[in-house]
Known about the structure:
The chain has five helices and six strands; from the N terminus they run E-E-H-H-E-E-H-H-E-E-H. The protein is of the alpha+beta class. The chain has a domain at 31-78: 2-Layer Sandwich (Double Stranded RNA Binding Domain). The strands form three sheets. It has a two-stranded antiparallel sheet with strand order 1-2. Strands 3-4 form a two-stranded antiparallel ribbon. The chain has a two-stranded antiparallel sheet with strand order 5-6. A hairpin with a 6-residue loop joins strand 3 (31-32) and strand 4 (39-40). It is elongated. Keywords: Metal-binding, Nucleus, Repeat, Zinc, Zinc-finger.
Amino acid sequence: xxxxxxxxxxAFAHNQHVLRHLRVHTGERPFACPHxxxAFAHNQHLLRHLRVHTGARPSPCPECGKSFSWKKNLASxxx
Length: 79
């Protein structure tokens, strides 16, 4: 059964999703970068940010093989 966010009434299929969404309202950022002062509300956002420090380039161009840190940069390259 759907669960709703108390502050904004947005509906979610699972209570766990409501709890994660509440960070939008509370400003909680429990996922801290070990390399700098940045912190994130969601683990996926921290993992994406870590590419800045690691130099990871997980988006290769299928035509030339050049790799990019961000999908948007790959998309610009392919245009």
